[in-house]
# Entry
Amino acid sequence: MNSLLPEIRNAVRAVIFEDQHVLMQKKFNPQKGVYYTLPGGGQETGETLIQTLERECQEEIGAEVQTRNIVLIADYFKQRSDQSTRHQLEILFYCKVEDGYSPQNGPAPDKGQIGVEWLPLDKLDQYPLMPEFLPDILPEIAEDKEHIYLGQIA
# Structure
């Protein structure tokens, strides 16, 4: 593993389902092209996980979310553009947006974020998702299959 950064970062993600679709951020990076991620981000000092998730969703997707329970925790070793590796603890929560929510960028979208979309659960393998394990695990989460700790993911 190339230069592992010393800090572990807690990252929370919102898993929001509606009518067999999942809400995803659409991003663009010159090296990766277009790809999709779950809304959410890094926990700041003094924030609870729920506060982090509420702040990130407001910033990125312009929505207040109702946070439910944790559905997944995984260790993720994220390769960064500077060739270093960051150890992240990915914590996914079931969330709900208000009825009638229309996908849109929030007031402070992520770098490279170009949109927010509902993606069909049965076609996730046709989209470039990050991290790469999402197309396999999101349909299982939607079916309430039991997952809490996945261990290390790619």
